[in-house]
What does this fold into?
Amino acid sequence: MAHSVLFDQNQLYNGGGMNNQADGLEFYQTQYTDPSAASGAGVQQVGVDDFYASSYGTAMPIVERSWLAAFGTGGFPNEPALMEELGINFQHIKSKTLSVLNPFKPLDTEIYDDSDMAGPLLFILVLGTFLLLSGKSQFGYIYGVGLMGTLGIWTILNLMSQGGIAVMRTASILGYCLLPIVFLGSVGLAVDLKSTQLGALAAVLPIAWCTYSSATMFVTVLSMSEQRLLVAYPVGLFYTSFALLTVF
It folds into this structure.
């Protein structure tokens, strides 16, 4: 309830008003009281700590309010980790990388249920950096070939399989299986693959490695064991393009 401020016109204009009142204003008295003082009248005040304890069953944690808190491990209860919020799972990245390095090991299809792109983007960045250090600026070609090749293979797989596959899962599998081509790019830092006669032959092994790993993953995920060669053909062309960018 706000205070009312009114002019007392009788005193203001009666006899000039200057002799009776200094300013000609009077404030009417009210019965306004502070609501916070009503706690003694039977109103129970509930604090923030009491509300938090009654809701979550634990005392409210003390959170550091400074810029140093951004680099710490503290946070609110039941708050997901930062990497989980960003969709980055290092355990899945490690498992997928090891499955590419050992393509003869039985695959765990559960790790390919997500569309993890952290590993593929890292491998593409490392490959482009190796080529840049070798005197080949191929970042635009890498992203262009990767995008068009992924869309093409995704279309072919959806036409061949009954269940189909998401485009991001296709990009994730193709990106992880690019790892042998990254190894080929690292070899190009020490040896000029274009000038040597063994450069083209050295690219055959990474291409076969990438093709076998990727085709095995697609066949396992989509249950297309009888169509392995049909899946391996476009995938092999995809990785051959990256090998040509790496060698030449």
User: Anything to note?
Assistant: The beta strands are 5-7, 25-27. The chain is about 55% helix and 0% strand. The two ends are 82 Å apart (CA to CA). Confidence is low (pLDDT under 50) at residues 1-9, 11-22, 38-46.
